[in-house]
Design goal:
By secondary structure, this protein is an alpha+beta fold. It contains 19 helices and 22 strands. The chain is 44% helix and 22% strand. Strand 6 and strand 7 form a beta hairpin. The chain is flat and about 115 Å long.
């Protein structure tokens, strides 16, 4: 009997309203719960991104200060500098012996150094009375030395006073601040760090200071550049004054007479937390601020002990610190949320509308018509045809793994007839030990999903197959299992070939650079913390370009192949040999100390010397 919409609403509107209301309330609760969980995930990812940015800032700060320390150390030991200060009297700090030729030589060396590295702002030699003896300034066109009459007395500057307290060989690094010339802050603002080292004669008596003004603008610009849109990076000194801020007018407050431009005035609660915890997250509901205290001159945390050399830094520089901060507002971390998109909002509307439609049809069509026997038989016949003539194998087995049915494709794969296989063979007995263990585990744990099995065919071959298994249980007892069987031998062969192509050099067959870099990191991770060795050999074929130029690239390729074969044969199972690029090769030698590695290298060199390529 047909029921029109008007008649249906008159009779069923209460049930329609009740069921639709319940569905809408449940859907709204689920959507709100999902939204809160999703928003929390975006917030957590924001914190993770903050940690990455803080790590990046800390590493770049270490590299920045390390480079300054290395540069001042190298400048102080230049022969021209040593020869120049040899003429400085230790008694009255006169310029006796400071010839024009010596001065010109030092000025030329400093000028070249500044022109090579544009981040040097000034290089100076200052006597123990604070008088500049040599000063070379950076200039956009060419570095130029300051005439003697324009040299200044810097005795009252804090970095000179700190430098005079050094022992020979020590290095003092000043705080990061704006450069001052003739008592005035230089315009435009020029952030610098000054490195000072004390030079002495052979008896250890102090002679003069070498002072390097290192421009920090490049470091600060790189700091600002690695923050994406939405993330705001800040850098403050230990007093809370901004060294870098997205509001540039707030920077350098202590030098520019702006004592209120300090973090403690901007956010007292955050500053108080930072004084109590050196690293953390300040959650103000509407914004997230992650921070970390950075010790720029503490090189120890850098990876693998690569910078364990003592640079003689004064101890007080190691307690100087900065704070790196990353700030993201709630609006910004929720901006990528997918539910802001109009299509998603339209989709939610469709869900609610569809729910109403489904409830309508559920009430209107509560009783479904029975499927007649003819349709049922036709459907069953189609299923049987689909099973027996499917393009992939299917088989059925009971709780003892006895095969109770198999389709045509399975028989083709295994080479059996139906009479030889069905109710005669147990699947467990046809599997390799590893596959048998996987099947037993799947059956005992009610596993439903994909398995990779090795099945023995009638002719004894092992056939790798991908199998999707599903089981039927009566309580805890397995009554019947069904699984698909698909030959994946070609797929495995292709995977192995692709893996080989991805990890080896196409010409020589040696490991390629990408694989050996990953292998090196894995070996490092697996090495014991103590009593272990790891050596690396870098090999380069001398005059290889002349081989290519003289005999052609095909002969050059033959040389590379022959050299690879020789090295792989010599190394055997002692290490891993790879082509690093061009005619450069690399060998990783686990569990081999330096002495053994030297012997191995010499053996490779001698064998290579005797190598002849026809």
């Amino acid at each position: 009997m047909f029921i029109g919409p008007t008649q249906f609403l008159k009779s069923e509107w209460k049930r329609l309203f009740f069921l639709t209301g319940i569905a809408y309330v449940l859907m709204t609760l689920v959507l709100l719960l999902g939204k809160n969980t999703y928003d929390q995930g975006l917030k957590d990812r924001t914190v993770e991104r903050h940690q990455y940015l803080l790590n990046l800032t800390e590493n770049r700060a270490h590299q920045f200060v390390l480079r300054i320390a290395l540069d001042i150390q190298q400048l102080s030991i230049l022969p021209s500098v040593q020869h120049f200060i040899g003429g400085v009297s230790t008694g009255n700090q006169s310029t006796r012996g400071l010839s024009a030729a010596n001065r010109k030589q030092v000025e030329d060396v400093f000028r070249k150094a500044i022109n090579i590295d544009g981040r040097y702002d000034q290089i100076r030699i200052i006597d123990l009375a604070g008088k500049e003896l040599v000063r070379v300034n950076n200039h956009p066109d060419d570095a130029w030395p300051t005439p003697i009459k324009q040299l200044q007395n810097k005795h009252n500057r804090y970095y000179v006073q700190e430098g005079l307290k050094l022992t020979p060989g020590q290095i003092y690094l000043s705080p990061l601040d704006l450069n001052i010339e003739h008592g005035e802050i230089e315009q435009p603002y020029k952030p610098v760090i000054r490195a000072v080292t004390l030079l002495a004669d052979d008896q250890g008596s102090p002679l003069a200071l070498v002072v390097l003004n290192y421009k920090a603008g490049h470091f600060l610009n790189r700091f600002r550049a690695h923050f994406e849109a939405g993330d705001r990076g800040m850098l403050v000194n230990s007093d809370g004054y901004w060294l870098s801020n997205h509001y540039r007018e707030s920077e350098w407050g202590w030098q520019l007479g702006m004592p209120d431009k300090v973090l403690s005035a901007w956010n007292p609660e955050l500053w108080q937390q930072m004084q109590q915890e050196s690293e953390g997250v300040f959650d103000a509901n509407d914004e997230l601020i992650s921070y970390r205290q950075i010790h720029p001159a503490a090189f120890e945390p850098l990876a693998d002990g690569r910078f364990s050399t003592d640079f003689g830094l004064k101890q007080d520089i190691k307690i100087q610190s900065w704070f790196s901060l990353v700030r993201t507002s709630k609006k910004e971390w929720l901006a990528p949320a997918f539910y802001h998109h109009p299509s998603v909002q339209f989709f939610v509307f469709i869900i609610y509308f569809t729910t109403l439609t489904l409830v309508w049809f559920f009430l209107k069509h509560q009783v479904a018509k029975d499927i007649n026997e003819q349709q049922k038989n036709s459907y069953t016949s189609e299923l049987e045809d689909l099973y027996y003539n499917a393009p992939v194998g299917y088989l059925t087995f009971d709780g003892n793994s006895l095969i109770t049915n198999a389709n045509t494709k399975t028989l083709e794969y295994l080479g059996y007839s139906r009479e030889e296989l069905v109710n005669k063979k147990r699947l467990r007995d046809m599997l390799s030990p590893a596959s048998k263990a996987r099947l037993n585990l799947a059956m005992s744990t009610h596993y439903v999903g994909d398995l990779r099995l090795d099945v023995q065919c009638k002719d004894g071959r092992w056939l790798p197959v991908a199998s999707a298994i599903s089981s039927k249980f009566h309580g805890s007892a397995l009554t019947i299992s069904r699984c698909s069987v698909q030959d994946i031998s070609l797929q495995l062969e292709l995977e192995q070939r692709l893996k080989s192509l991805a990890n080896t050099d196409a010409l020589t067959g040696a490991y390629n650079r990408r694989y050996v870099e990953a292998l090196f990191l894995r070996i490092l991770d697996e090495m014991p913390a103590e009593n272990s060795y790891l050596s690396i050999l870098m090999l380069d074929i001398d005059h290889f370009k002349s081989i290519n130029d003289t005999y052609g690239h095909s002969i050059g390729d033959e040389v590379l192949i022959a050299f690879t074969r020789l090295c792989e044969k010599c190394l055997g199972d002692q290490g891993y040999f790879s082509r690093f690029g061009g005619e450069e090769f690399l060998a990783i030698l686990p569990n081999m100390d330096k002495s053994a590695a030297v012997d191995c290298a010499e053996r490779l060199r001698a064998e290579t010397e005797a190598l002849r390529v026809d």
